[in-house]
Amino acid sequence: MNHSQDTSSQGMPEDRKLYIVDSINDLNRLTLCPAGSQHLLPLQEKIPDVGTNSGNGSHSLFFMGLIIVLIVSLALVSFVIFLIVQTGNKMDDVSRRLTAEGKDIDDLKKINSMIVKRLNQLDAEQN
């Protein structure tokens, strides 16, 4: 048997392996001699008992699913925290720029009022 097949089938219960082998044998018999199909075992005799090992498998699947959900949740929370920090930094930059532009606007208003005063003085002197 192939080494890769051995490693992939190690986690399967023995009953499942036998069921799979029986099913493959039945398919081969049907393909090779359709008249011999009456010698096949009924399906109920081949299916392993559900109560023997299914509890361990379902518990392990449940815990694996729970671990995957927790890891995905942790990743999403980390991403949201990263976005909040980045947004805070951008808001600080924008507020600094607005403050600087506000000072520039106040300076322009002062210069504008000085120019208007000077033009009014020049206009008064000409009249």
What features would you describe in this structure?
This protein is mainly α and 127 residues long. It has 4 helices and no strands. It has helices at residues 3-8, 14-32, 43-46, 54-126.
What's the layout of helices and strands?
Layout: H1 3-8, H2 14-32, H3 43-46, H4 54-126
Pfam family, one: DUF4577
Keywords: Membrane, Transmembrane, Transmembrane helix
InterPro entries: DUF4577
Helix amount, in percent? over 70%
Unreliable residue runs = 1-7
The general outline is: rod-shaped
* SS elements, strand count: 0
Q: How many H/I helices?
A: 4
Largest sheet features: none
Rg (C-alpha, Å)? 41 Å
Strand content: under 5%
| Rounded average pLDDT | 78
How do the helices and strands follow one another from N- to C-terminus? Answer: HHHH
State the distance separating the first and last CA atoms. 114 Å
**What is the SS-derived class?**
mainly alpha
Organism: Puma concolor
Protein name: Leucine-rich single-pass membrane protein 1
InterPro entries: DUF4577 (IPR028099)
Transmembrane segments: 61-85
